[in-house]
# Entry
Amino acid sequence: MSEEMKNEMTAAPETMDDYAAELEESYKTLEGKQPVFETEDDPAAEKWQEFARMLEERTVINVKVKEAVKGGLVTFVDDVRAFIPASHISTHYVEKLEDMVGKHLDVMVITADPEKKRLVLSGREVEKSRREEARKQKLAQYHVGDVVTGTVESLQSYGAFVDLGDGVSGLVHVSQISTQRIKHPSVVLKEGQEVKAKIVSTENGKIGLSMKALISEETAKEEHESFNYKETGTISTGLGALLKDIKL
# Structure
């Protein structure tokens, strides 16, 4: 699991306040230049209703960037001016906004305010949504009971994250690392170490692993084989059996 994904899991959701400055910088040049209509008389009212539907359904649309302004990019959706905040262009940092002019982006509506005529789009949300969908498809390949091999990518006080490959990680809780009680995963594991574990849960899109379960199963198997050997072995106390290997 990448550090970015871990941060996303714990980060608080963004609100309009997080990029209000970007919006104001972009829209302030239009103040007083756009005609104000009553909702029922607004010739673009149907368009804004459609934008509201796109917002609710998280519809992905493709737009062409028209210009770069301070704080983001400007484009048009059905002839309505729209703004893409710099922080919402992509999940990756875009250093030069002007390099985006003329490019096509897949975006979704994140704000549709007909009163202020503000339409805000996000390419980052599309990328995150697609990445999450791809991750779900990968996770669907793993099932409880499967034995997997991976590499320890990080150690935390509560357990170890194991990279299973192809962008999928699992967590071995500290209580599931060893059959003995340990205070910290570093007592047994180190980063970069290859380990084998059993999948014990796949709830909420998270893979729970157990090394202890495999150790317990291996121990039980060895004890069972040893028991069977003793049960099937032949024991004889006959005189012939006692003297057959003695040479006179």
Notes: The chain has a mean pLDDT of 82.
